[in-house]
Fold this sequence. Notes:
By secondary structure, the protein is α/β, with parallel strands linked by helices. The chain has helices spanning 9-20, 40-55, 71-76, 91-103, 166-179, 184-203, and strands spanning 2-7, 28-33, 59-63, 110-116, 121-129, 134-138, 158-163, 211-216, 219-224. 36% of the residues lie in helices and 25% in strands.
Amino acid sequence: MRARLGLSIDDLAHRVRTAAGTDSGRRYVLGLAGPPGAGKSTLAAALCAALNRKAGALAGVAPMDGFHRTNRELSNAGELGTKGEPGSFDPGAFTAKLGELRSARVGAEVGWPVYDRGIHDPVPDGVVFRGHRLIVVEGNYLLLDAPGWREVRSLLDECWYLDAATELIERRLYERHLAGGKPPAVARAKVTGTDLPNAALVAATVGRADLVLTARGDRYLVRVVR
């Protein structure tokens, strides 16, 4: 794999603008995959902010987490303990909405659900896309080659994989669970029992990405996969 050192957020934004071209009526959809705790949400927000500095409301973030099955549904199925695993999402609804977002002309209104960490459940139409021409879809399982998921890759114009060391992921996720109200022992069990196995599953999908990014301070090491 070829590597480039030290690309800034502005460099990455320029890459997206160039790849998207000048068709003002078509949406360009960039996927941002990677393990939980790698910093996908942070990178997606920073990338969209950089894109929007040049042209107003050009870009928006479409998080995969809005397609979690509800706590009630998981609880009724006896699957609440699997939350965060691929089976705790609705990939059919995700691919359908992603297809709608991709095919809709710029200016057409498309609602997108978001995950509310306060109530720990998805909220329908938490964000609405209208004039956004560049969409950053971020989530763990965008590159998963499994039934219900493998169709996602074909709906992305490009997909980047954000990598991170296991020790960093473990610390971030533990702190996230604590902030969400879990007692320390429960937070630790969630990290070791669910999050780290999920991270290993996601790591196996890296070969389906176009680029692999690794944070180095405020810049990114970029490796070209294909």
